[in-house]
Amino acid sequence: MQNLKSQFLLREDITFLNFGSFGACPKPVFERYQQYQLELEQEPVNFVTSKALKYLDHSREALGNYVNCHKNDLVYVTNPSYAVNTIAKNFDLKEGDEVLTTDLEYGACDKTWDYYCRKAKAKYVRQPIPLPIESKEHFFEAFFKGLTAKTKLIFISHITSTTGLRFPVEEICAIAKEKGILTFVDGAHAPGHILLDLQTLNADFYTGACHKWMMTPKGSSFLYVRKELQSTVDPLIISWGYNAMFPSDSQFIDYHQMNGSRDLSAFLSIPAAINFMQEHDWKTVAASCRNLVQENIEPFCKLLGASPLSPLNDDFNLQLFSAEIKTTEPEQLHDLFFEKYKIQIPVMRHGDKVYLRYSINAFNDQGDMDKLFAAIKDIKNNTAFIN
């Protein structure tokens, strides 16, 4: 993996162990991004009115092939939170309806569903998942205790943020389909992290971030909607795509793609990111990253006095690993890691717990983890930040 470090723009003096929050662009992808921005500025009118739609079509086709869906079944959004808001605002909730999720979801998404459920006098059910998870069967047993006759939608992460756990969404989508319940999978951490096949997954709604593990410029994500449901999803912004003067063959695309002036360059760079991964045999790179994650779990947990949150296999753990850390000042601890030890690593609150999460990508090596372990030991010996 070390030979790919030169391909990234990350600062040499920073040990970057937070790829899960924001990915980093490889140089060829960032260069393609800047080329689009330059082309836009050199002739903005021609770019926006003539070239942009063709470029977007090409980009969506590349992404559709990558995640195995038709290009017209996905639209670009700036981030998964935007996608969640789009679906939540459009979802036809009635008083007494329920949306089932876990108590381990991303905070911004929790807030979105809580807002729209309260507005409709519906119920957002954050079903507790006991940690550690013992098995998939243990997860299913805990999760489906929250299912009732009033459940209209299951909203669930593919890979969680604070705990870094992969959830068995394939099985959940299949069970929901049998019961006639719609599913919405928050795949913010999935594209580029795991093999994603939207046809096989069969979720009704799916959102993924390209600017995390796919390594595209920031502000590039997508929303997938099953074709039969696309007519139920209005855009957050009504603009030229409504009753379009020159409509495409997809109202879904027109409505959500043509919604005002914005820099599309991040979206257009997605094919370059896919090409980069193909050129560098990303399946092998990702396997090496997972091995490095696994090799460091035992010393990491031992240092923190923590236990793994799940069985240690690819069903639950990939290129992210979180463990509970005993601290009353997580924000200050994060700043200490960064300012004193030059380590970028998230220290995240979730309910009454705090998690320290490391992530591994193509530029990391064992030396990065050794620096983290040395910093943790020093902090424990010389400060009160870690109990």
Task: Report on this structure.
This protein has 14 helices and twelve strands. The protein is of the alpha/beta class. It has two domains: 2-28 and 276-382, Aspartate Aminotransferase, domain 1, CATH 3.90.1150; 50-269, Type I PLP-dependent aspartate aminotransferase-like (Major domain) (Aspartate Aminotransferase, domain 2), CATH 3.40.640. The strands form three sheets. The protein has a seven-stranded mixed beta sheet with strand order 2-8-7-6-5-3-4, with helices on both faces. A three-stranded antiparallel beta sheet has the order 9-12-11. Strands 1-10 form a two-stranded parallel ribbon. It is globular and about 70 Å long. The relative contact order is 0.16.
Summarize the structure.
The chain has 387 residues and is α/β, with parallel strands linked by helices. The chain has 14 helices and twelve strands.
Counting DSSP H or I runs of 4 or more residues, the number of helices is 14
SSE order, one letter for each helix or strand: EHHEHEHEHEHEHEEHHHHHEHEEEH
CATH architecture of the largest domain: 3-Layer(aba) Sandwich
Structural class: alpha/beta
Q: What's the alpha carbon Rg, rounded to whole Å?
A: 21 Å
Give a count of the beta strands, DSSP E runs of length 2 or more.
12
Low-confidence residue ranges: none
CATH class type of the largest domain: Alpha Beta
Q: Biggest sheet, in brief?
A: 7 strands, mixed
Number of domains: 2
Helix content: 40-55%
Residue-averaged pLDDT: 96
Strand content: 5-15%
Described by the principal axes of the CA atoms, the overall outline is globular
The CATH fourth-level homologous superfamily of the largest domain: Type I PLP-dependent aspartate aminotransferase-like (Major domain)
Fold-level CATH name of the largest domain: Aspartate Aminotransferase, domain 2
Distance between the termini: 34 Å
